[in-house]
Amino acid sequence: MAFRKVTSLLTGLVIPYLSVLGGIAFIGKYDTPIFGIPILYFWIFLWLPLTSLCLAISWSCFDRYEYQINQSRKDAK
Q1: What is the pTM of this model?
Q2: What's the mean per-residue pLDDT of the chain?
Q3: Helix, strand or coil, per DSSP, at residue 29
């Protein structure tokens, strides 16, 4: 059970957090534009939907089972 919570936390929060900060640290020194946008802004804007994707993966792979159990308990009452 603890493994599922740690994996869910890593997938949903730590990966996007480190990716954005890592991008700022490593990509911030380059001025190359992508589609006319500076690469740093492109990287940050790219991670907005990718963060939502990571959260969706985290929920569907690790937390959905707990949610379904809690819902079935509420329905039984």
Answers
A1: 0.72
A2: 84
A3: coil
